[in-house]
Amino acid sequence: MKKMIICLGSLALLLAGGCAGFRVQDQEKAYSLDFDPTDYEMKTVAFNGKTLEFRAYENIVYVARPVDVEYERMNIYIPSGYFKNATINGYTPDSAPIFLPNTVGGYMPGPPLTIGGPDRPGDHGPDMSSASLTALSKGLVVAAPGARGRTNVDKKGRFTGKAPACIVDLKAAVRYLRRNDKRMPGNAEKIISNGTSAGGALSALLGATGNSPDYAPYLADLGAAQERDDIFAASCYCPITNLDNADMAYEWLFNKVPHYKKMELKGMTDWHMERKEVQGNLTSDEIEVSGRLAALFPAYLNGLNLTDENGTPLVLDQNGEGTFKAYVKAKVIASAQAALNQETDLSELSWIKIKNRLVTDIDFDQYLSYITRMKTPPAFDGLDLSTGENELFGAESIKARHFTLFGLENSTAGNQMAEARVVKTMNPLNYIGASDADTAKHWRIRQGTADRDTSLAVPVILATTLVNQGFDVDFFLPWAVPHSGDYDLAELFAWIENLH
Ligand code: DHB
Predict the structure, then answer these.
(1) Which atom of ligand 1 is nearest to the CA of 380?
(2) Which ranges of the chain have pLDDT less than 70?
(3) pLDDT at 17
(4) How far is the CA of 22 from the centre of ligand 1 (A)?
(5) Does the CB atom of residue 388 touch ligand 1 within 6 A?
(6) Residue to mutate, 240, 272, 277, 451, ligand 1, most ligand atoms under 8 Å from C-beta
(7) Of residues 148, 73, 78, 74, the one with CA closest to residue 109
(8) Which residues are bridge partners to 61 per DSSP?
(9) pTM, to two decimals
(10) Residue nearest to atom 2 of ligand 1 (CA)
(11) How far, in Å, CA of 107 to CA of 116, rounded?
(12) How far is residue 325's CA from residue 322's CA, in Å, rounded to a whole number?
């Protein structure tokens, strides 16, 4: 995609001896939570054959007392027409929804997305500013907050971004937007968050946990605006979520797949570092661990009391077979059918049965062998504390901890476990429909059928829980799409335009 940025007025700013939007980094200082409508740069960007003109309000620190001022800041982009009272795509300055993308990957720190800034190819799909440029072209306001992550450290070497810092930061950004709703175009009652993978999980958390008191002490410490932090809608691409149950879910799905292909992430501090593919077969110890984890999944799943669209209970027997498995499989079949309807050639895939242009069955075990397993068991709570998620659940002076009982009891690396209340704050399922949380009305959840970063059971459980609790959910597994996001922007924004 060709983009061209022209910074109008940058000369004038140079002459004025400064750069609009830049604020002094002074950790001692209390930052103002009042949006300054005069502190912007005009930008024009050529995008999809159109010229977008917008005001760029960049580097707004969104809490009064940031812990990491590099990340607790936000870039806000507003179509310039809204300052001339224009109507764009049917939206007015007061009604325009606010698109809220996060750039978090791997639960590492996510800087605020900068339109016209460096592209981030290879993260999770297309250049991450494409979604925001599309949003602007459709008349949405873009508010792009940064968030701390598991690798942040302060000058004293203390970890400052361990759970729940990433979700607390995004909630603080939402509060800033509500506080300033009258001072800027865009409707803070129409915030739509977007993220991929760990960022998709954060989008789900923003959607699920609105106004929950569990986050209040953290928000108070940061000096976040005293406002509501519920949002209107959540778009979640391949959310790496439900972490405390994801190991069982992974082995339930991949128990019979001993071969793995994964990207080596060890030692990564930055999401853009090169990753190396590693292949292998599970050891006998790992196969044993897989079996024990898989055996735990049915009791967890049955305890959720989920039902399908007809009210039929979604359950599993001790062997992991049952209506829930059939339901997951049906979603994969629906995905193959949609691909076939769009003339995708599936004839090479002998495990898909097709009759008269209808996908009549899929051999589920062969499908799983085909996509292969990516992670060795346990996929998330590593027994040696080596995963990114172990690091997410570290503490100020602890790099990594366990966050499941299984991980703790089978640990080869000590016996430290994250506090239950911290683990709770990172799982949206604890909040959906809870009496003390305001869950977003609308949800869009996508996970490709070639995605092995987490079990298909994870998005299915999330989507089904939401549907069962009466929320509006658009859920689909796009055919053959790997772990990625923002690949279907036309459909994403069609969904957004139809939300009421
Ligand atoms: C991401 C991917 C993972 O496999 C994981 O465990 C956590 C995060 C990501 O792409 O953000």
Answers:
(1) 6
(2) 1-28, 117-126, 265-275
(3) 34
(4) 31
(5) yes
(6) 240
(7) 148
(8) 73
(9) 0.93
(10) 106
(11) 24
(12) 6
The two tokens of residue 443 are: 């949800």
Q: In the structure encoding, which two tokens stand for residue 190, read together?
A: 């129409």
Helix, coil or strand: residue 170 = helix
**Atom 5, ligand 1: which residue's CA is nearest?**
106
C-alpha to C-alpha distance for 370 and 407, rounded to whole angstroms: 29
Cβ of 106 closer than 6 Å to ligand 1, yes or no, is yes
Ligand 1 neighbourhood includes 149 CB (under 6 angstroms): no
Q: Does ligand 1 come within 6 angstroms of the Cβ of 382?
A: no
Tell me the chain's radius of gyration from C-alpha atoms.
23
- Pairwise CA distance, residues 111 & 146, whole Å: 4
The residue among 4, 13, 11, 67 whose CA lies nearest residue 39 is 13
Pocket test residue of 107, 247, 264, 272 for ligand 1, highest count of atoms within 8 A of CB = 107
Q: Which two tokens stand for residue 192?
A: 């739509």
The H or E element containing residue 409 is: helix 405-409
Q: Which residue has the tokens 């140079």?
A: 14
- Under DSSP, the state recorded for 31 is P
Q: Yes or no: say if 429 and 236 are a contact pair by the CB < 8 Å rule.
A: no
Q: 3-state class of 484 per DSSP?
A: coil
**How far apart are alpha carbons 24 and 15 in whole angstroms?**
18
Q: How far is CA 174 from CA 179, 299, 469, in A?
A: 9, 37, 24
Instruction: Compute the CA torsion angle 419, 229, 269, 150 (nearest 10 deg).
Output: -10
Please tell me the distance from the alpha carbon of residue 167 to that of residue 199, in angstroms, as a whole number: 10
Ligand 1 center to residue 123 CA distance, Å? Answer: 10
CA 134/CA 33 separation, integer angstroms: 28
DSSP state of 443: E
CA of 454, closest atom in ligand 1: 4
Gap between the Cα atoms of 60 and 32, Å rounded: 9
pLDDT confidence of residue 25: 46
Q: What is the pLDDT of residue 14?
A: 37
Q: Is the CB of 234 under 6 A from ligand 1?
A: no
Q: How far is the CA of 13 from the centre of ligand 1 (A)?
A: 40
- Residue 225 tokens read as 């605006």
Place of tokens 């800034």: 117
The CA distance from 122 to 330, in Å, is 31
Q: How far is it, in rounded angstroms, from Cα 165 to Cα 63? A: 13
> Residue 239: left if φ>0, alpha if ψ -120 to 50, beta else—which one?
beta
Q: Is the CB–ligand 1 distance for residue 197 below 6 Å? A: yes
